[in-house]
Design goal:
Elements (H helix, E strand, L loop, with lengths): L12 E11 L5 E12 L4 E11 L5 E11 L5 E5 L4 E5 L7 E6 L2 E8 L6 E9 L2 E11 L1
Antiparallel strand pairs: 1-2, 1-10, 2-3, 3-4, 4-5, 5-6, 7-8, 8-9, 9-10
Amino acid sequence: MSDKYPKLLEFEGLWQLSRAIEDMRGPGSGQFEGIARFNADGAGLAYAEEGRLTLAGQAPVTATRRYLWRPGGDGGISVLFEDGRPFHRIWPGRLMPDDTHVCTPDLYHVAYDFRGWPAWSATWRVVGPRKDYRMVSRYRRG
């Protein structure tokens, strides 16, 4: 990766978001199409996404997510749940920026790819007693 990698405030603004969800336990899959918006909130960025989620065998629904993105102090980015609880960290300058979040009994692992910045992606692998899926989210400026 080059020396040019995104800093926290470079995410600010509107992004087109496309997400593919693959159920590893069966034929089920899903797709999300929508937008993600990063707004400055005085302490970093507030992340909000909204779009249409279509899961195999189900009617499409409107889906939303909200997170807080904060400076990590070491060049990283701390991603928090909307209520301020820690979720995971991002180190955009790393060759392979990834992290893990444990929500017992489930394990969430994310790998970010900023090599095509300003286009970027986040790939989640989630496993647990009732979960086993891969989710790839692709972002591009809106």
